[in-house]
Amino acid sequence: MKNTNIHEGIILIPDFNGFTEFVFNTKLYTGQYIVRELLSTLLEVNDQHFDISEIEGDAILFYKYDSKPSFQTVSKLLKKMRNAFNRKVEELSEILNTSIDLSLKFIVHYGKFSQYNIGNFKKLYGPTVVEAHQLLKNDFAEQPSYALFSHSFLDKSNDFENGSNGQLYLPEVGVIQYFEKIKQHI
């Protein structure tokens, strides 16, 4: 059986660092409000650049079918998302008079995947999706706020520059780009 629904594209997963501790140390209603606000901020900044497959807890599974992904475009979007996230954390901390110890990491992966519908939900399927989720559980990152770009994404990208400020090359997986070492132009 041939599946014509298989495409190549980008999997992007923004995920909160510190989420488990946050859930256990924050009142239910307050935590729900904060998480909803932070996820909404990421969705607004995305501005329909990526499609949404699902939202689960503290992560969004974004995807985009793209045969020639741009490292610069994706990197710029991630910086905007991170800056908006941090501004929202500061705003909510001040409004709610509480400390919000959450940071943001991103996984950017590339490969083939398919999509199927269950009711109103669009689900992604394939090894690329599983690999992206496995990359979330890495122990490579030395700082909590970063973007991990997989080899498969970097190999497909037509404008990746190795050795830029704040990048750490990892032969096993790709490149980690730390936000703290990146100049903030936004």
UniProtKB/TrEMBL annotation:
Superkingdom, taxonomy of origin: Bacteria
Pfam families reported for this sequence: DUF2652
Protein name per Swiss-Prot or TrEMBL: DUF2652 domain-containing protein
Organism: Chryseobacterium glaciei
